[in-house]
Design goal:
The chain has 2 domains: 26-142 and 262-284, Rossmann fold; 146-260 and 293-321, Rossmann fold, CATH 3.40.50.2300. Helix content is 40%, strand content 19%. It is built from 13 helices and 12 strands. The strands form 2 sheets. The protein has a 7-stranded mixed β-sheet, with helices on both faces. Strands 2-1-3-4-5 form a 5-stranded parallel β-sheet, sandwiched between helices. The longest helix has 16 residues, at 39-54. The protein starts with 14 loop residues before the first helix and ends with a strand. Residues 3-25 have low confidence and may be disordered. Keywords: Signal. InterPro entries: ABC_transpt-TYRBP-like (IPR007487), Peripla_BP_I (IPR028082). This is ABC transporter substrate-binding protein.
C-alpha cells in the first residue's frame, strides 16, 4: 500500500533529521489500471513503464507501481478506481475509455492520465484536445477510417457490406461506429452492425455477420479485441476477411490492420507521465497522438479467408506475419 509522504513530529528538533531520512527512502507512487487484458493494452502498459524507467522512475528503486486489471468487469473497474484514489498516489493512469471514466469519477485532485482513448472529448474526459482542463490529459488512439476502407476495397474489391462488431455500452466504440458510418457512405459501402457487451458474446456476434457481411472490421474496442480469435475463427470458416484497427490483432489472426503501435502510444503516454510527475499540470498538456500508421499483414490468415495479397501491398507492409 502506498505511504503518505508527509509526517508530523512532536519534537521540532527532530523534524529536520526525520525529513532527511524520509526523502532518502521516498518513492514516486503510480497506479495503473485497465479494463481488460489483451496484447494492445499490454503493449501500451509496457510502453508507459519503460518510458518511466528511461527517465529514472524504476520500479522497486525510485518507483512504487501498482497495476490492476478489471478483467472486463465495469463494477470491478469502479471498485479499483475507488481503491486507487484512496491510496493517494502521485499519478493515476487509465488505459481504455471505461477505465479513464471510472478513475475520473474518483480521482479528486490526483493527477490523472489516460491512454488509448479514442474520443476523450465525446467521453467527457477533457474539455478539448488542445486544452484538456481539470487534472486530466493523455493519449488518443483515434485514427481515420478512410485509409483502412481503401485497403479493404483493394484486397476485397467485391465487398459491399462491412460488418462491425462493437460493445454498444462503450462511448469509445459508439463514437467510432458513428464516424465509420460517415466514411462507409463516402466509399459507397454499407454497414452491418453486431454488438457484444462481454467477451463471451463476441463469437455469437461474429457468427451473426455470416451471410450479411463481405468483410469484418474490428474497431479499437477492448471487449472485442480481447476475443479477436473468436472473430478470426468465424472469418476463416465463413471466408469473411477480418480487418483490425490495432496491429496486435494481426499477430493473433486478423488478415490486416492499418493502425497504431500501442507500445509506441504507451511510450508517448509515459513521456506525458514524466512531465506531470515533474510538476506540470495535466490541464495544460494537450492530448497526444501518434502521427503515423503501420500496415500489418497476415499471409496465413489471408489464405484461410480467401484473399490474395498483391506484391505491391506486401511491399508496403511494416510487418508481414506468415
Amino acid at each position: 500500500m502506498f505511504r503518505k509522504k508527509a509526517a508530523s513530529f512532536a519534537a521540532a528538533a527532530l523534524i529536520s533529521a526525520a525529513c532527511s531520512v524520509a526523502s532518502a527512502t521516498e518513492m514516486t507512487q503510480v497506479a495503473i489500471t485497465y479494463i481488460i487484458d489483451h496484447p494492445a493494452i499490454d503493449a501500451a502498459r509496457m510502453g508507459i513503464v519503460d518510458e518511466l524507467e528511461a527517465h529514472g522512475f524504476k520500479e522497486g528503486e525510485t518507483l512504487e507501481l501498482r497495476v490492476q486489471s478489471a478483467q472486463g468487469s465495469m463494477p470491478t473497474q469502479l471498485q479499483i478506481a475507488k481503491e486507487f484514489a484512496g491510496l493517494e498516489p502521485d499519478l493515476l493512469v487509465a488505459i481504455s475509455t471505461p477505465s479513464a471514466q471510472a478513475l475520473q469519477s474518483t480521482a479528486g485532485d490526483i493527477p490523472l492520465l489516460f491512454a488509448a482513448v479514442t474520443d476523450p472529448v465525446g467521453a467527457k474526459l477533457v474539455e478539448s484536445i488542445e486544452a484538456p482542463g481539470g487534472n486530466i490529459t493523455g493519449t488518443t488512439d483515434k485514427q481515420p477510417f478512410g485509409p483502412t476502407l481503401a485497403l479493404i476495397k483493394t484486397l476485397v474489391p467485391d465487398a459491399k457490406r462491412i460488418g462491425v462488431i462493437y460493445n454498444a455500452g462503450e462511448a469509445n466504440s459508439v463514437s467510432q461506429v458513428a464516424a465509420l458510418k460517415v466514411e462507409l457512405e463516402a466509399h459507397g459501402l454499407e454497414i452491418e452492425e453486431s454488438t457484444a457487451s462481454q467477451t463471451a458474446m463476441v463469437a455469437d456476434a461474429a457468427l451473426s455477420l455470416a451471410g450479411r457481411a463481405d468483410a469484418i472490421l474490428i474497431p479499437t474496442d477492448s471487449t472485442i479485441v480481447a476475443a479477436v480469435e473468436s472473430v478470426v475463427n468465424v472469418g476463416e470458416r465463413a471466408k469473411i476477411p477480418v480487418f483490425a484497427s490495432d496491429t496486435d490483432s494481426v499477430e493473433r489472426g486478423a488478415l490486416a490492420a492499418l493502425g497504431f503501435d500501442y507500445y509506441k502510444l504507451g511510450r508517448l503516454t509515459g513521456e506525458m507521465a514524466v512531465r506531470v510527475l515533474n510538476g506540470e499540470s495535466p490541464a495544460a498538456i494537450p492530448v497526444g497522438a501518434l502521427d503515423t500508421q503501420d500496415l500489418y499483414l497476415n499471409t496465413s490468415a489471408a489464405a484461410a479467408m480467401g484473399v490474395t495479397l498483391p506484391d505491391d501491398i506486401l511491399e508496403q507492409a511494416t510487418k508481414v506475419i506468415q
